[in-house]
Design brief:
The protein is α/β, with parallel strands linked by helices. It is built from 15 helices and 16 strands. Strands 10-11-12-9-8-13-14 form a 7-stranded mixed sheet, sandwiched between helices. The chain has a 6-stranded mixed sheet with strand order 5-4-3-6-7-15, with helices on both faces. The N and C termini lie far apart (about 75 Å).
Amino acid sequence: MNSKEQEQTKISDNTAAFEQFSQCLAAQRRAYHVNPVPTIQQRIADLDALKALIRDHETELVEAVNADYGSRCRFETRFSEILMVLEDINRSKTQLKKWMKPQKRHIDRLLFPTSSCVVVPQPLGVVGVIVPWNFPIMLALAPIVSIFAAGNRAMVKMSENSEHLAQLLIKLVPQYFAAEKLQVFADNGGSGPAFSAQPFDHLFFTGSAQTGRAVMASAAKNLTPVTLELGGKSPAVVAPDFALDKAVDRIIWAKAFNAGQICTNVDYVFIPQGAEQQFAELAQQLVAQRYPDINHNDYTAIIDERAYQRLQTTLDDAISKGARAVNLMAGQQSVPGLRKFPLTLLFDVTDDMLVMQREIFGPLLPVKTYSNAQDVVQYINSHPRPLAFYPFSHDKSLQQFYLEQVMSGGVTINHAILHVGQHDLPFGGIGDSGMGHYHGFEGFLTFSKLRPIFKQGAYNSVSLLMPPYGWLANKMTDWLIKFKG
């Protein structure tokens, strides 16, 4: 097949995908209009069905992700995906009654003495969800928890790198939900643009900033509101007062988790000047204990060959420009084709290196040194705002300094990544790292219309202010302005 034929086939496939998405959206929207505000009992039933899907098929879900990766740590899948979603469901169920309750708002009793104001959260309708490959169970189902809690319906498009999981969900979801409530789609040859072009009531995207811009531009054509959960270069900084061995322990744990393929991972770390050798030695000792065999399932593979080669190119570029690489798995040989990339520290990094220009999304860790906190702040603030920030210090005044001076999506103090797993904390970025929030109450709000309602009481004071505006209307206005002033 020549290039012209391939292009025509791609156009045909995208047209077919667009029609498939459009038909599903139309069916879900019709169902929404039949029952626009599900009861709390219906919403809890939807959450219970989602929970049953996960519990009934946990092993299959874990194996599907493992198949997509080639080698994905099963513990990490169960801990960071299965457990996280189940906890999110349980907490949402316990809080849902409070979340759904109409909120009374203040009203000016001088002007409207017998009236009232409330805000009522109501479902938006149909929400589109675009899922990345790195935590595909959690990043597909956790947004659905919030979407269902808010009373909506959902269409979910999986990543092209999650083919096994996508096919499993396509088979399983109809056993628990009608297509008018939830439908999952595989990415058949780049159908993302066709999906994001649909006139959803809300579009939720997790992925790279580059793709996020395209998704937002596509959604803008339909005035579809978007939540963008992007990435960026999330920094850590270790203060002199914080024990270096503890910092290394926690930072290396984060960097090794999912082989660094996490949007909130530590992308680079600042350590005090002169601590380079100690940092490297501690990291080598730790990795030798935790990962004595790079080929073991405890250490996750890079998702595909293209990503593996990107990491190798990034490493080679840094070394060619003067960086000093410390392979923390030196002496271990990866099985060919398994795509196990060794945990590697990079010292003496500069901003002209690829490793400092784009999100790493892998087990490379640039290590920078500093002599004062202001230099750290100046460096971070001279770059796009990160999705996460990790200051390590027991000094409360220094903690507060960093919190006030460095803006990021979220923060974990004296550890890394853990704020993501707190279900009562909103998760989301800022600037280049995204917009909008989900998890818990903020997720419920994201997928709800907070509908303001004014209810006219028995006494209508506005009737005194009708034209023609005579003495009474002007006198009352004079008095109100004087009183309010």
